[in-house]
Amino acid sequence: MSAPSSSSASPAPSLGKIFWIFLVMGATSLGGGVVGYLRTGLVVRQRWLDDVTFVELLSISQTLPGLNATNMAILVGDRLRGWPGALLAMLGMCLPGAALMTAAAFAYSVGGDDPWSKAFLHGIAAGAVGLIVVVMVQLGSRVLKGLADYVFVLATAAAVAGFGVQVPYALLAAGALAIWWHRPRRRDGGDAK
Amino acid sequence: MKQLGDIAGVFAYLSLLTVGGGMAAFPELKTLTVDVYHWVTFPELLHFYSLGQLAPGPNMMMVASIGVVVAGLPGAAVALVAFFLPTGLLTFAIGRLWSHLAAWRWRPAVQLGLGSVSVGLVLAGAIIMGRGALTDLLYAALAVVVFFLLLRTKINPAYPIVASGLIGLLAHWLEYTPVR
User: Fold this and answer.
1) Assessment of whether the complete model's pTM goes beyond 0.80
2) If contacts are CB pairs under 8 Å, which of residues 137-176 in chain B contact chain A?
3) Which domain holds residue B18?
4) Is residue B172 part of a domain?
5) Does residue B6 lie in a domain region?
6) What is the sign of the dihedral through the CA atoms of A35, A39, A40 and A42?
7) Which helix (H) or strand (E) holds A23?
8) Is residue A50 within 8 Å of A10, Cβ to Cβ?
9) What's the structural domain count of chain B?
10) What percent of chain B has a predicted confidence (pLDDT) above 70?
11) Is B178 helix (H, G, I), strand (E, B) or coil?
């Protein structure tokens, strides 16, 4: 394979197996928190990755645009069986949820205007706000290191939610500033000049 | 045909904004689907988004739902491909380059810098979503309870969210009047 494999000695799984394992994870990872399901499936059960590789791939997934779950599927599939592995892992991950949300939209067009459906969905939306704030706190506890990082968070949020700045501009401006803030500096003159 | 082209353009664009998760794209998702193209109303978007949190797999499969609303099954297919293909190819390419990037001096700066900005985008998404979903005291209280429950316990998030829906039903049954 073109991509470097992890330290596991076992031979690479078949494409069918990759598709199946990701399909199962795509169908069973209910209620968000896909990362936990991925670790259980890939590191603990299948032993396709060790924990160090898992965390490294996860940090790539979180830095790049795209959802963690699909980015992880692509990176792991590529490591196991090159691009066909990446494609099948991603398809497996997405198919169950995509089928369900497609069906949900058709059901919604039939019963979505019913006041009982609206009451139920209103409650779910309120609960989902709680979930999103938890996800944000967990993400923040990993990536926010100093006071300046919190300033970047608040400035970005205020620009987008308060002043209606379009996300790409906020992303470019705050991103450039934050990256510059964390720019590599020479340490104790070791490699200076 | 024009609609399928619009769907492809909107979701390909949105996919590039999902730095740090799907919620980071929520502000633009709302602007484009509700205010610019009028594909869904804001409450409808909230409904699909929250249902999407309950669906298994990646938490943005609700893009398929919006595709269906606009253009039926072809709309769903176009929305999914547009949302997942561009970032998928990018991840694939960067994943292969990553071993070369490992020693890049700017890599930690990019990771830390984008990290804090992505938290900010998720916060913005949560605020905008909250404006639509937390319409009065009851729903605000629901969000707060779910927040602390998920922060303090390892319970599967699907349970408290479904429970929130049931409380919404109960409120409707009791002809609850909003308290602001």
Assistant:
1) yes
2) 139-140, 142-147, 149-151, 156-169, 171-172
3) 2-102
4) no
5) yes
6) positive
7) helix A15-28
8) no
9) 1
10) 99
11) coil
